[in-house]
């Protein structure tokens, strides 16, 4: 670099005081620079007839530098000056021999600068022609833009020039522009007022977001060419360019592929074969997919490099043959209004999949997933198969599979989800722990590794085979059950044949039902611990082993074999048992084994409960008039069996509408305070007369007649007023105190500190 910090020049002049130096001096300076022998301006030999100072040379160099380059690169500066001087003619004269005009290259920098002042620099402008991109284009689309360059300056151009095409998104979020095309002209030779047609190759980047873009052209974007007017180098393209993330049948094009580049550089490709088209949008950087006009012959494939891609929502407006995305994670909703044959996705979390109906006979959906968490699938079409590597429910989320039919459920690890299959599940294979509430119409075979304590299975019809490879916990209710195999322990479990756990799918709900059923074969390879196995067993309450259980006629358990121990608190219950019963390798007689409940052991209770009611405090005049200022009522319930329900009502309330007060019953007694009684009444209690009714029901279904108790609630004190006191000249010679009260009262009167006198008067009568 040439140090010109001491030049003192900030502009140039063509006055007589300018330094005059010849092109030979430029050659000598150039030679020293390129050979590495340059050691300063003073060491450059000048012609003896040229008078110039070091300051003048530096001033001219600074001026030409700013005109030509705008930089301090002396090598490039001198090269361009030398080239310019040799390519332009100056000082026209007459050849003495031929008489023709002659020209000579400029021999001084001052003449070069003077010439520039006279002629002016080049000035390029452009006229934009046709852009071959579609009006709505995809990322990665390629086209060409025709451009006509014109030199409106005073000098010709002979230098490198590049022309670039840029795009800015509207509305502009920032001032950034993206280069989408360029033409590099290594040496643009363009005479004054001449034009040149060029074509710029244009390609939209693969990561271009959808939206409207303004396009513009920049001439000499790298500032290689000094121009008279730099302000006219930016030319806007009038029509905006629309970019959409579409694929499939886009416009007149068929099977268009959409290719997007993720922030990590991975490429995602969308291909839709068949009818319809798709569009991808973004919300907060996460993709949304919508399909339109698809049919049962449309096939969507998403191919992703690297770790794959994430989709938040998918909406299919119509039918679809296949949605295939082995590296596509779903973190939102997948909704298809019509039918679907196959769905393949990678990981799914906090998502809902909703599949519409199909009008085809024997149609079934195949669903294949990797890891699922907090996923709900509802399908109006039958599901042919549902498979996943694992399925969890975490952080208070929920998971559900709901369809009319499900042929095969296959999970390679654990499965924690509710299952609601109206007609039936043919086969399930869970290689991890099974959990959740399962409600099925019928099922052929369930192969489970193990079950959680929270697992609950209700089969309205027949369960053909239940095979648990390890420990089984939880509850099973089935209309009938042919075979159950537990290879580990049966612990804290219920197996109830002929039962239905109702709408909530759990034992103990208000709509549970218990009828007759048959369990053909029950085999446990381990132990049976704190478990109940029953066919036609009606527990009558939430406890299955408190002695009030009933057996429904026709309930039967056939073969029983437990290779391990059976705990004393476990129960086998049925009206009939088969002959082959072995516990711990010993043949058992159900009639003499306390762990078996048979018809002969059922205890019948035919007596209704006995209910008593009274006031907690009778604050009336004599303590027995059922008048009180304390709102609490107490009572007792006695019965030889457990009380299953206690209800109460006031006045003429129908018994069917009585309020359940079972929560207040403890150890045969109950207390109803102001809040409890107000709940029964349906409004806050006020002073007045009341009749409370209570009905009790025991675990055998015996119901007491309504027991009534009438009382008066009075929390307002009496009003006593005196109007006259007569102490003399009374007819009977007594002192008379005259007054009134508003209700019956007991009056205590004291005269001159004598002993008080107590007497009773009735309301509205004179007090004397």
C-alpha geometry: flat
Distance between the termini: 130 Å
Number of domains: 7
**What's the average pLDDT?**
84
Low-confidence stretches: 1-25, 38-52, 65-74, 105-110
The residue fraction in helices comes out at under 10%
Number of strand segments: 62
**Biggest beta-sheet profile:** 34 strands, mixed
User: Helices and strands: which structural class?
Assistant: mainly beta
How many whole angstroms does the radius of gyration measure? 50 Å
- Number of helical regions: 5
Strand content range: over 45%
Structure description:
With 768 residues, the protein is mainly β. The chain has seven domains: 23-119, no CATH class; 124-243, Sandwich (Immunoglobulin-like), CATH 2.60.40; 255-346, no CATH class; 370-444, no CATH class; 453-603; 610-713, Sandwich (Immunoglobulin-like), CATH 2.60.40; 720-761, no CATH class. Helices cover 8% and strands 48% of the residues. The protein has five helices and 62 strands. It has a 34-stranded mixed β-sheet that branches. Strands 3, 4, 5, 6, 7, 8, 9, 10 and 11 form a nine-stranded mixed β-sheet that branches. The chain has a five-stranded mixed β-sheet with strand order 51-58-57-53-54, with helices on one face. The longest helix has 15 residues, at 54-68. The chain is flat, with a radius of gyration of 50 Å. The N and C termini lie far apart (130 Å).
């Amino acid at each position: 670099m040439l140090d010109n910090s001491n030049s003192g020049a900030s502009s140039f002049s063509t006055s007589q005081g300018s330094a005059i130096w010849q092109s030979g001096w430029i050659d000598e300076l150039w030679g020293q620079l390129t050979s590495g022998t340059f050691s300063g301006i003073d060491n450059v030999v000048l012609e003896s007839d040229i008078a110039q100072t070091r300051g003048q040379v530096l001033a001219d160099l600074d001026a030409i530098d700013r005109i030509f380059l705008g930089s301090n690169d002396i090598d490039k500066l001198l090269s361009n000056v030398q080239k310019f001087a040799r390519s332009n003619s100056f000082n026209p004269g007459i050849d003495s021999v031929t008489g023709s005009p002659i020209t000579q290259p400029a021999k001084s920098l001052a003449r070069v600068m003077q010439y520039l002042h006279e002629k002016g620099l080049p000035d390029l402008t452009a006229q934009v022609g046709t852009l071959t991109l579609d009006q709505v284009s995809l990322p990665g689309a390629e086209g060409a833009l025709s451009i006509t360059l014109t030199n409106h300056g005073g000098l010709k151009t002979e230098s490198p020039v590049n022309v670039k095409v840029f795009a800015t998104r509207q509305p502009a979020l920032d001032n950034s522009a993206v280069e989408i095309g360029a033409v590099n002209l290594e040496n643009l030779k363009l005479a004054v007022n001449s034009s040149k047609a060029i074509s710029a190759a244009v390609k939209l980047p693969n990561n271009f977001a959808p939206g409207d873009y303004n396009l513009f052209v920049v001439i000499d974007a790298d500032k290689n060419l000094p121009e008279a007017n730099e302000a006219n180098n930016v030319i806007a393209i009038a029509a905006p360019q629309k970019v959409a993330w579409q694929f499939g049948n886009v416009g007149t094009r068929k099977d268009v592929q959409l290719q997007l580049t993720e922030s990590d550089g991975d490429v995602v490709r969308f291909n839709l074969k068949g009818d319809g088209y798709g569009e991808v949008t973004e919300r907060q950087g996460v993709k949304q997919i919508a399909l339109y006009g698809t049919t049962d012959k449309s096939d969507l494939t998403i191919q992703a490099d690297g770790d794959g891609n994430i989709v938040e929502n998918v909406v299919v407006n119509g039918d679809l043959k296949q949605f295939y995305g082995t590296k596509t994670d779903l973190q939102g909703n997948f909704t298809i209004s019509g039918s679907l044959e196959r769905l393949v996705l990678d990981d799914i979390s906090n998502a809902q999949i909703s599949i519409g109906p199909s009008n085809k006979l024997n149609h079934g959906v195949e669903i294949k997933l990797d890891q699922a968490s907090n996923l709900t699938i509802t399908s109006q079409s039958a599901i042919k198969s549902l498979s996943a590597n694992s399925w969890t429910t975490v952080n208070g989320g929920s998971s559900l599979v709901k369809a009319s039919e499900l042929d095969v459920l296959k999970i390679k690890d654990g499965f924690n989800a509710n299952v609601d299959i109206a007609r039936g599940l043919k086969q399930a294979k869970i290689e991890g722990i099974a959990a959740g509430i399962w409600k099925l119409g019928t099922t052929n075979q369930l192969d489970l590794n193990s079950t959680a304590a929270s697992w609950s299975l209700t089969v309205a019809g027949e369960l053909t085979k239940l095979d648990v490879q390890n420990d089984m916990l939880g509850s099973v209710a089935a209309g009938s059950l042919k075979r159950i195999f537990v290879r580990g322990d049966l612990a804290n479990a219920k197996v109830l044949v002929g039962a239905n756990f109702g709408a909530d799918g759990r034992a103990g709900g208000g709509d549970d039902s218990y009828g007759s059923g048959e369990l053909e074969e029950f085999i446990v390879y381990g132990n049976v611990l704190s478990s109940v196995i029953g066919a036609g067993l009606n527990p009558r309450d939430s406890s299955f082993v408190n002695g009030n259980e009933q057996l429904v006629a026709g309930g039967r358990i056939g073969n029983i074999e437990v290779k391990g121990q059976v705990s004393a608190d476990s129960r086998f219950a049925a009206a009939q048992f088969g002959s082959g019963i072995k516990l711990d390798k010993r043949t058992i007689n159900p009639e003499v084994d306390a762990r078996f409940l048979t018809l002969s052991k059922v205890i019948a209770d035919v007596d209704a409960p006995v209910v008593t009611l009274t006031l907690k405090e009778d604050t009336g005049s004599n303590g027995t008039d059922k008048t009180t200022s304390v709102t609490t009522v107490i009572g007792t319930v006695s019965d030889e069996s457990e009380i299953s329900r206690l209800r109460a009502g006031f006045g003429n309330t129908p018994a069917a509408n009585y309020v359940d007060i079972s929560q207040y019953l403890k150890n045969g007694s109950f207390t109803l305070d102001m809040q409890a009684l107000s709940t029964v009444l349906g409004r806050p209690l006020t002073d007045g007369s009341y009749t409370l009714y209570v009905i009790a029901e025991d675990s055998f279904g015996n119901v007491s007649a309504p027991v009534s108790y009438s009382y008066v609630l009075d929390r307002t004190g009496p009003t006593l007023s005196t109007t006259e006191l007569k102490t003399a000249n009374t007819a009977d010679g007594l002192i008379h105190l005259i007054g009134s009260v508003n209700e019956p009262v007991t009056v205590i009167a004291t005269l001159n500190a004598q002993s008080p006198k107590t007497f009773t008067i009735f309301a509205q009568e004179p007090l004397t």
